[in-house]
Amino acid sequence: MASLDIFAHDLAGWARALAAGDVRASDLTETCLERIARHDGTLHVFTTLTADAARVAASDADRRRTKGETLGPLDGIPVALKDNIDLAGTPASAGMASRAHIVSTDDAVVTARLRAAGAVILGKVNMHEAALGATNENPLYGRTYNPHRASHTPGGSSGGSGAAVAAGFCLAALGTDTLGSVRVPAAYCGVAGIKGTRGLISPRGVVPLSWTFDHVGPLARSTRDLGLLLDVLAGFDPACAESTAAPSAEPYDPGAPASLAGIRLGRLDGLAEAVVDLEVVVGFNRAAEIIAGLGAEIVPVTFDGYDFGRLRRAGLIISEVEGAVVHAADLAERPEQLSDELQAMLGYGAALPAVRLVRAQRDIAAARERIMATFADLDAIVMPTTPQTAFDFSDPVPVNQADLTAIANLTDRPAVSVPMGFASNGLPMGLQVLGRAFGEAAILRIARAYELAADHDMRPLHLS
Amino acid sequence: MASLDIFAHDLAGWARALAAGDVRASDLTETCLERIARHDGTLHVFTTLTADAARVAASDADRRRTKGETLGPLDGIPVALKDNIDLAGTPASAGMASRAHIVSTDDAVVTARLRAAGAVILGKVNMHEAALGATNENPLYGRTYNPHRASHTPGGSSGGSGAAVAAGFCLAALGTDTLGSVRVPAAYCGVAGIKGTRGLISPRGVVPLSWTFDHVGPLARSTRDLGLLLDVLAGFDPACAESTAAPSAEPYDPGAPASLAGIRLGRLDGLAEAVVDLEVVVGFNRAAEIIAGLGAEIVPVTFDGYDFGRLRRAGLIISEVEGAVVHAADLAERPEQLSDELQAMLGYGAALPAVRLVRAQRDIAAARERIMATFADLDAIVMPTTPQTAFDFSDPVPVNQADLTAIANLTDRPAVSVPMGFASNGLPMGLQVLGRAFGEAAILRIARAYELAADHDMRPLHLS
Fold first, then answer.
1. Domain coverage including residue A184
2. Which of these is catalytic: A26, A157, A158, A243?
3. In angstroms, what separates the C-alpha of B366 from chain A's closest C-alpha?
4. Residue A210 known to be catalytic
5. Could you tell me the CATH number of the domain that includes residue B169?
6. What is the model's pTM?
7. Is B348 within the bounds of a domain?
8. A385 and which of A112, A184, A417, B265 could share a cystine (Cβ 3.0–4.6 Å)?
9. Quick check: is A464 catalytic?
């Protein structure tokens, strides 16, 4: 048979169908490969497609299932990896021409964890060059287009990951998130994405940009899918200085919460300061009403004195300086292989005086304390994920794209983006839930309750 | 009467004598003022002596006690403050000519806490210029001399605080500690000193050097004195980004532990890498034997791959950069008021590229993880406080003075220095106990058990 309606279920639904014997992993994988063959010539998502290995992995999953030796809900589920995450035997370019020849000898920790859980890895997907930017206009692999509108950006830097999930090329993808690079494409592409608390998921085997703010995070079609993925991805890695935390003892899968009674939620006000588009504000107010209708107590909060732009820039400065250290050899020895834009950003980082950097770090530390104080009696804070919807590649890049996502990176806290329906321009919007440290289970439960109640159909209708 | 033998008791002992009515606060204060009058012409400890205010405060304490309204163990206890800690109405020079005219309008948080506990503040004491150095050779106020040998440094940067306690000019003094500036002078002067976990004591109202590593910490003649002082100094300060922690619910006063049974202690090996003087190693081995005799289980530990000098320099680089931000106006507008040495250090920080700084920060983060792993099953780690004893002002400054103390600042952990007797050159040595985060009570208990068992008499015999 093979060709299935991939949008009939989310990952969790397909996992259930696999468990019930209603479908084979091989059919899921073939369906994804067919969709890729049909649409990727237009969307430009994959940089490396490992179709043969995927077919073998899918057969192995089916064989295990026949023998009653299945590895869990991800066994046989097709997934994709951002091109800065090591997959043994394939290049990990990080979207950089200077790295396109570097073939990974080992899997990244997250790749190995997915593989050990039986996930079928389809290959590597496009990203913004060096993960330092959010359009996904890549000088090496070209533009990746938004499945909801093929003239528009999917967001970035994990744009390929967002587009792959939205286009039904896979059921989940890994991205990385330094100031919002998982959640911005999740919002722009109409899928769900999460960045966990700093230290929860090992970044070992991922090409770094900023070791201070980098996180690996999954994207999928629903928040319960994210829970299943976190169950596999989260874990302490003693070999990695950035990995500091054991996962929650409880599963991250939020189930199907029908009520948010007893939950105290901040609703971020003062969005005008972050220059949020009017229709995103309208969509956000509607989402907040749905959440209030679920029984959550909603409290307006402002991050008093928090300067969204200044702090996002502070985060960017640190990323540029740490990126200049990471890519020092490329910058010094083969700058012609970097785009002018990347050369400029890394060059800025390389030349920045340390006194400027420590001022940025001090600003961030002060903002962190301010937000921590705001959180004192709240379970989470909700806000839009991005101030606007995806934009046309020919339009100027909005400078404030990551103003609302950066907050979670600057404060080391978890944040999930869940689809918030479509704006009147027909493009997806995202709702972001920012949690307490190690509050992943709590924010997934809140996001899941909203997702079930709102029941948005985010399928990109023009993609057959 | 007045003149008492100030060395007859530690702070806790004098507090008991006050409580019993055996002595008056005024007599204690007069005794200290007499000692200052007798010896400070030689030692050069005080930069501002507030004798009149101290006499009033001592009378007030005596009056409270007569009425049964005493404020606790510090009520009536004479103390001194390092000259970078605000005391309303007196200059807070931070040892800098450029700041000598800046009179504090308010008390620092720690000053206010001492005052509210009834402590009698005698004045401000000398320090290394800008707290950036450890000889206490101050260009504005001159050298402070070690009470144990008047040709030698008291250490620094809180050299005046160490000398004031050792000379019996007061029963306790506050210092500040960025890479060891409380514990180095404690060790060199034969007194006890503690740096708490980062965030435990508010630094608000203290002239900063490095907001990343600065801590306020007390010096006194015994570790139980330090416990009484922490009981007053520790506390969350919502107005201060660096203050993050409430104090322990238990008192810090360690009592008189006769046994260390059940305690698992690391003994730092590999001291040769930190170039520890042979006789300090011998003294340390003797101390470790005493601790083992108290029933503690002693486990040799090495901070595998920890490069003592490289990491102390990494901390110094951060201090120089942050110091260049703090003192930017002085450096730019009145550099002639800074010593050549300070100009060079701050100038280095001002000119340093940010990429160098983030490399230092990354090295420190990696070392922190390494040490955290070492700590997994230990209550604390013991090591010498300094690799050598105090040195002659005419000798070159040993570069590795702070190699062993910096560890606690770089890892945000508490560390106490307790006198370890005299080396054969007649100068004091210090034993350092490095604890787990917020393990102040535990390290004070260990240090106190050692102190009681070792029973070193650290009185500077040549000072009458």
1. 26-309+362-454
2. A157
3. 6
4. no
5. 3.90.1300.10
6. 0.91
7. no
8. A417
9. no
